[in-house]
Amino acid sequence: MLTTQWHQGAPFKLRFPITASWTIWAPAGCVTIAVAQIMNYHQFPRNYCDWSLVNQYNPNDPLEDNGQDVLDEVALLSKKVAGGCRVECNFFGSGETFSTPAKAKRFLRDVGYTGTEKHLGYDADVIKKTLDNDCPVFIGALASSNHGHAWVIDGYLNYENIIKTYNGPTTLLKTNTVNKLFVHCNWGWQDTDKNGYYASKVFDTRKGPADLNGYPAATRGVNTKNYTWWFRIVTYNKPR
Description:
Elements: H1 30-42, H2 51-54, H3 68-84, H4 101-110, E1 117-120, H5 124-132, E2 137-144, E3 147-167, E4 171-186, E5 196-199, E6 203-204, E7 226-227, E8 229-235
Antiparallel strand pairs: 1-8, 2-3, 2-8, 3-4, 4-5, 6-7
């Protein structure tokens, strides 16, 4: 669904304050980028920014090749979304930019998205239903007690694996069908290699996306790259 591969660095952070921890601009924040990519997908609200100008930004080009008017519009969009989501820069002196799914949900509601809901826990059916309605899904989760991330799920794939058991070379004993749901994740990172399909509810970015020839092991979050608990999902109606 998403064609954007946005991240927290420049130009998205260029209107953010310079923090003592970073001695450079604070990162735009994962909530900011997730929400901004969803808004850009729908290009709603229509007059929130110059969407056509924003979509001229190409992250694969050198920054200066994008044109100053494009960079300025992207930076302004990011800053406005961050303000709406009430992000906190240099959160508790960490140098990180922080917000919550609840604030993201409130912001989407305030700018005109109807039917906004925050769902506690992970619900694959809710995710699939929202995607079927042409709406990318905002999701947040924790990897440890003090580190979380927000990203976008923008697709899913039902993977069917047929397992046949034989007695000898030709005698078929049984056939089992194993169904597995994979969801497509846009992480909002400059490392776009992490974007791709992950086994539903198993978001271990250390291993990267699945190749669909096997299932990733389900492991509980133990560091900053494995997001598997304290899930929060934000859904909404497709804007008209």
